[in-house]
Amino acid sequence: MSTAPTTTEAEASKPDAPASSPRRWAPLRPLILRLHFYAGILVAPFLLVAATTGFLYAGAFQAEKLVYSHEMTVPVGDTKLPISEQVAAARKAHPEGTISAVRPSPADDESTRVMLSGVEGIDADHALAVFVDPYTAEVRGSLEQYGSTGALPLRTWIDEFHRDLHLGETGRLYSELAASWLWVIAAGGLVLWFSRRRALRKVRGTSGRRRTLGLHGTVGVWAALGFLFLSATGLTWSTYAGANIDELRTSLRQATPSISASAGGEHGGHGGAAGTGGSGDHGVGLDKVLAAARAEGLGDPVEIVPPADASSAYVVKQVQRSWPTKGDSVAIDPASGEVTDVLRFADYPVLAKLTRWGIDLHTGVLFGLVNQILLMALTLSLILLIVWGYRMWWQRGRDSAFGRPIPRGAWQQVPPQILVPLVVVVAVIGYFVPLLGISLAAFIAVDVVLGEVSHRRGKRTPADAS
């Protein structure tokens, strides 16, 4: 499989096939073709799973609204009750666990969420979200919630399936491997497609493998930019490449800043601890804390995080991930109600902002429904490209020869002045994107061994073979 076009062995060997491409690309074309072919064939299963689960995740936002409409929405009333009364109602219905956060009703027809941690039967990194009618304090239900976007059970299940196949940290290797190779396959496909003569790119009036190649190439070219984006943003929060990216951002002073949650000053240590359960009020209470945050310009949607311990402050942060992003946060002393720290999203470093927007665009929240539809179209195109890629592999066979590989020895055609810098660049990329480097080294090792075995067999005489 490949996410952008490939070609036949015969076409690759024709001197006039790459005539429209610059001369400097000519020696690299056979090498790129072989890499594109094998990477497509071997990595395609991982990409197919990532694309299918990504398609489901993009649609999960709208499905979530339908499935959990009773909990998430409420009839519009006249006046919303103080947030402390709403939290008290949630605690009366669910006294278990401790309050980890509160999300006041962000819209007239949306419920308030009170998140409880340490609840039996709920994963440690998840919370039990209690949904409260902000007008009547009626508890409309409770559901397990995960992540900063407030994913409920349906979306959480699909999210974890997309991320790690429900296999934990080990399972995350599959998605990182897919993201590591997607940009390589897409970029290689673009080079191959634009190095073909224009007459060979058309779909209309063709049949067989050439028609499959035309469809594969045309869709691949249109979707390539999206694939490069998905690959880059997917790597930003992967296990190994993501750690290297974080380290690089930190060294460039572009890490995402965090607000100081210390109560500070003479009031430090006078606020109650968050782990005491109860209504979630500490010191001045939730109502005054929310009012102080509003005075600092924090509009809905916001999340209130109670003090972590006796020396900590309340943290109120905006949680709107859609455009325009609302990411301001303030820390408020629980004893005095004074604002002790303010962090504005506008003051984030450039790379921190780009990372935030990139992840939100990747997950389908930045532009809402339009974003989600585009992601579904992009993942569907990747699924089609994989199917067409394998079909072309099938069509490469003649008679009994199924899926004939691209001939070996392509690297020998690349001049040293191009090959040596290319090897250095690949080594550097492989270091920063480890799963790409390791798997590429494994491909090369296996290919060398198979080539040597084939070479030795070719030297054997008929008598030896018998």
From TrEMBL:
<feature type="transmembrane region" description="Helical">
    <location>
        <begin position="173"/>
        <end position="194"/>
    </location>
</feature>
<dbReference type="InterPro" id="IPR025711">
    <property type="entry name" value="PepSY"/>
</dbReference>
<feature type="region of interest" description="Disordered">
    <location>
        <begin position="259"/>
        <end position="280"/>
    </location>
</feature>
<feature type="transmembrane region" description="Helical">
    <location>
        <begin position="365"/>
        <end position="390"/>
    </location>
</feature>
<dbReference type="Pfam" id="PF03929">
    <property type="entry name" value="PepSY_TM"/>
</dbReference>
<feature type="compositionally biased region" description="Low complexity">
    <location>
        <begin position="1"/>
        <end position="10"/>
    </location>
</feature>
<protein>
    <submittedName>
        <fullName>PepSY-associated TM helix domain-containing protein</fullName>
    </submittedName>
</protein>
<feature type="transmembrane region" description="Helical">
    <location>
        <begin position="37"/>
        <end position="58"/>
    </location>
</feature>
<feature type="compositionally biased region" description="Gly residues">
    <location>
        <begin position="270"/>
        <end position="280"/>
    </location>
</feature>
<feature type="domain" description="PepSY">
    <location>
        <begin position="80"/>
        <end position="142"/>
    </location>
</feature>
<dbReference type="InterPro" id="IPR005625">
    <property type="entry name" value="PepSY-ass_TM"/>
</dbReference>
<feature type="region of interest" description="Disordered">
    <location>
        <begin position="1"/>
        <end position="22"/>
    </location>
</feature>
<keyword id="KW-1133">Transmembrane helix</keyword>
<dbReference type="Pfam" id="PF03413">
    <property type="entry name" value="PepSY"/>
</dbReference>
<keyword id="KW-0812">Transmembrane</keyword>
<feature type="transmembrane region" description="Helical">
    <location>
        <begin position="418"/>
        <end position="446"/>
    </location>
</feature>
<feature type="transmembrane region" description="Helical">
    <location>
        <begin position="215"/>
        <end position="237"/>
    </location>
</feature>
<keyword id="KW-0472">Membrane</keyword>
